[in-house]
Amino acid sequence: MISFRNTAIGLAFLALHACFVSTEPLLPSGQGARIADGPVEICGEGGEDCHAAAFEDDTYIVYPPPDAEDEAPLRLRFLDLADSDLGQVWLGEVELRDPDDDESIWYYGVAHPMPENTGGVTRFEMVQPDCMDATLRQAARYGIEPLDSHTCSISDIASLAAYLVEAHGEDFNDPDWWRDPD
């Protein structure tokens, strides 16, 4: 079992729901999108627990705080997913790397810009839709494979994107859903 310490960085969205995961990155290298001009903060559910993210190449990087220098940075890449009444919705790929053996696992969630822009910083709320909400038909159609009661394996970014739009496209317009996507 991989013991990822960089969850201590504080992005609570990584552990709260049944997660979409992959043992390899699904977003092709070089295809991560810049989600805003200028400084960005990535926030967990409800806009809480925000962290500055630096954009390098096609990746946003959340560096651990100075008192956690042994933790690996959190790496996030985004893909344009859908328009909503609340702004553009992005599909996010989050790499968690174990600093002890350099193994990684990738988590997937959705993000949208928060309405308030604080001091020129654009904040994005990121949540993980519950993978256990997929019907048997959706799971078969989109390649969603439950691994246990908390995680589902996925193997194709386009299929995940199509599922999220089908299952949650209307939810993306609802501020209450972003606060509690269950």
Offer a few descriptive terms.
7-stranded mixed beta barrel; single chain; 3 helices; mainly beta; 182 residues
Description:
Helix content is 13%, strand content 35%. The protein contains three helices and ten strands. The protein has helices spanning 136-142, 157-168, 175-179, and strands at residues 19-22, 40-43, 51-56, 59-62, 74-82, 89-97, 104-118, 121-127, 145-146, 151-153. It has a seven-stranded mixed barrel. Strand 9 and strand 10 (151-153) form a beta hairpin. The longest helix has 12 residues, at 157-168.
Short description:
The protein is mainly beta and 182 residues long.
Write the layout of secondary structure elements.
Elements: E1 19-22, E2 40-43, E3 51-56, E4 59-62, E5 74-82, E6 89-97, E7 104-118, E8 121-127, H1 136-142, E9 145-146, E10 151-153, H2 157-168, H3 175-179
Parallel strand pairs: 1-10, 2-8
Antiparallel strand pairs: 1-7, 2-3, 3-4, 4-5, 5-6, 6-7, 7-8, 9-10
